[in-house]
Amino acid sequence: MRFDLHVHTRFSACSRLALSAILENARSLGLDGVCLTDHDTMDMAQKVREGVQDDGLCVLIGMEYTTPEGDILLYGPFEDLGPGLSAPEVLEAAEALGGLAVAAHPFRARQPAWPDLLDHPLLRAVEVENGRNSPVENAAAKAFAGRHGKCCLGGSDAHDLSELGRVTVRIETPVCGRAAFVAALRAGRCCLGGSAPGRKWV
């Protein structure tokens, strides 16, 4: 299954991407699933039925959590996670809740992740391909993940429809809900999938 793991809706103040546009276009772009990862909120769960939609698209809710040490993509049961936590606290919460925490765009020049995040033993995965990063920034993330044995993930970081599906991950087992999705990622049953078939990254 081909997923875009990093998508922002209008629940993120910086995004112009409407939920309706995602639902109407994801399948035609060649996506089997999207994970909606708004900044510091999972409130989109109140607006969309999570799981497989009528057209077969799997819609899951995650979050991009802001910490002083760097942004963290969270997949799992984090609805009750309060604001203001440090990166180590978020990583500990992810383990306690059985979710997955991913260092988001950790080598982006204007907002690099700190060692407190990258060197933490509970960091399992790194976003090594981000659709808004430069090739140099993505290459640095991929090199870091390779050196430290981290799971390599990616996502478009879409804030606009033109960005949806730029970067995808292939999940190697069928998933229809959040728990199975997280289990597949934690077990490493995934790989980078390039751009969605209907999307060219230019």
What does this protein structure show overall?
By secondary structure, the protein is of the alpha/beta class. It has a single domain (2-194), classed as TIM Barrel (Alpha-Beta Barrel). It is 22% helix and 23% strand. It is built from five helices and eleven strands, in the order βαβββββαβαβαββαβ. The strands form two sheets. Strands 3-4-2-1-10-11 form a six-stranded mixed beta sheet, covered by helices on one side. The protein has a five-stranded mixed beta sheet with strand order 5-6-7-8-9. Strand 1 (2-7), helix 1 (19-25) and strand 2 form a beta-alpha-beta unit. The longest helix has 14 residues, at 135-148. The protein is globular and about 40 Å long. 49% of the residues are buried. This is PHP domain protein.
Task: Based on the model shown, name its key terms.
TIM Barrel; alpha/beta; 202 residues; 22% helix
CATH topology: TIM Barrel
- Work out the count of structural domains: 1
Unreliable spans: none
Order of helices and strands: EHEEEEEHEHEHEEHE
Organism: Solidesulfovibrio carbinoliphilus subsp. oakridgensis
InterPro entries: PHP_dom, PHP_domain, Pol/His_phosphatase_N, Pol/histidinol_Pase-like
Protein name: PHP domain protein
GO molecular function: 5'-3' DNA exonuclease activity; 5'-3' RNA exonuclease activity
